[in-house]
Amino acid sequence: MSLRTKDKVLLWVLLAALLLRVGFALMCEHALYPDEHSWNALSQALLAGKGFINHLRPPGYISFLAAVYKVFGAGNMTAVRLTQALLGTAQAAFIYFLTLKIFRKRLTACIAAAAVAFYPYLIFYSAHILSETLYSFLLVSSVFYIYSMGDDDESPVSSIAAGVLASLAVLTKATVLAVFPVLIVWFALNKIDIRKIVFFFAAAAIIITPWSMKNYLKYGAVVPVTPSGSYFFQAYNKETMRLEEETRRLKDVEWYTDEYNEIAEQPVIEADREYRRRAVVFMKQNPLVVLRLMLLRFVHFWRPAPITKNKMYILSAFISSA
């Protein structure tokens, strides 16, 4: 589980990662995206004692923002950006140690850390009030400790750290839950000690259960993180193809259609079930449209550059992610 190294190259890489993120956070103007306004408002409400007022947003990033505002002052976005600069730098460090643990080569580990340190998107996200920086840090650090569970001489501390960090990642973006079945297979294939597995899931349960219990008491149904039926419906309904195509032509679209808003008037759990039901009905009745949507999203995901009018974003994408 050791995070120690004598590699001086790593220190220079981490310094560069920190300076790039801090410089971008302090020297560039940042117009707030709609999502940033949303996250900020939700954290301010939590800070004001109103609780979690939006059932569609998971609690992780909201709590993170509220904690930063509690320490440095409500609405202090500079403090958030600088805190995220530290998280982004720490992520590069975890990538280094994870790569070193897998490949046992310092040069390979330094290349991996540098890729994270200089990756434009990670620098960009660290300076915005968005959940990506916190989530990616939690994901990478949890994978490091999960991988460490395979070491014969490793103490239960790695298992506990892995469970805590993985569950915090779940509470930040619930999509990571899809990885857990694969993780169980990984435990089995690598013959991880059953005690370590117990420690891992016990630690994860301790973090996630209070939030799930809160949801059960509020909605009277099992909701591990947040109701997700509305996202499913937005991905598959009679307006989706038009909206997706217009979005890719850089047109302003309204994703909250009349049908969506009509369903939203129902109680949360009833609405969640209705969203899912209508999405499934649409998919069954329109299999060819579903296939077209899947192909459209597949091609969009693998684009070498984003669809944008900003030439700098396109250039950055070609240099890095392409």
Structure description:
The chain has 322 residues and is mainly alpha-helical. It is 71% helix and 0% strand. The protein contains 16 helices and no strands. It has helices at 8-27, 34-47, 59-72, 77-103, 106-118, 120-126, 132-148, 156-172, 180-189, 194-219, 229-235, 240-248, 258-264, 268-285, 287-301, 311-319. Helix 2 (34-47) packs across helix 3, helix 3 (59-72) crosses helix 8 and helix 4 packs parallel to helix 7 (132-148). The longest helix has 27 residues, at 77-103. It is globular and about 60 Å long. The two termini are 33 Å apart.
Q: Report on the biggest sheet.
A: none
Counting DSSP E segments of at least 2 residues, the number of strands comes to 0
Strand content: under 5%
Task: Give the helix proportion (percent range).
Answer: over 70%
Question: Span between N and C termini?
Answer: 33 Å
Number of helices: 16
Category by helix and strand content: mainly alpha
* Mean of residue pLDDT values: 93
- One letter per element, helices H and strands E, the order comes to HHHHHHHHHHHHHHHH
Low-confidence stretches: none
As a whole number of angstroms, the C-alpha radius of gyration is: 21 Å
Q: Rough shape?
A: globular
Write a compact overview of the structure shown:
With 322 residues, the protein is mainly α. The chain is 71% helix and 0% strand.
